[in-house]
Design a protein that fits this description.
Distance between the termini: 45 Å
Shape: elongated
Number of strands: 0
Number of domains: 1
């Protein structure tokens, strides 16, 4: 896993997010971003332990599966947001 990606996600999570009002859905996207960064960080830690021989191979496979699911979910959400944006651009004014 690219260490720069994890560092970027940690930096992104450390920035102060704008808090929407509870009517707007709370901080759902902020929490999702934090969960995504935590999943990547945990997987990276397990991968590093596996390289040194300190982790169980089963734990490595589980961590990689969790990371894959998190990335696929993030890509799906991104695609849906882009799709919605493009649909808004196609609306007549």
């Amino acid at each position: 896993m690219d260490v720069r990606l994890t560092q970027a996600l940690r930096g992104y999570g450390a920035t102060k997010a704008v808090e929407p009002t509870p009517k707007e859905g709370g901080n759902l996207f902020g929490q999702a971003a934090k969960d995504f960064a935590e999943t990547l960080a945990k997987s990276e830690a397990v991968a590093q332990k596996a390289m040194t021989g300190d982790a169980d191979p089963h734990a490595l496979v589980e961590a990689l599966a969790n990371t894959r699911l998190a990335v696929e979910t993030a890509v799906t959400v991104r695609d849906r947001v882009v799709e919605a944006y493009q649909e808004i651009l196609r609306m007549p004014v």
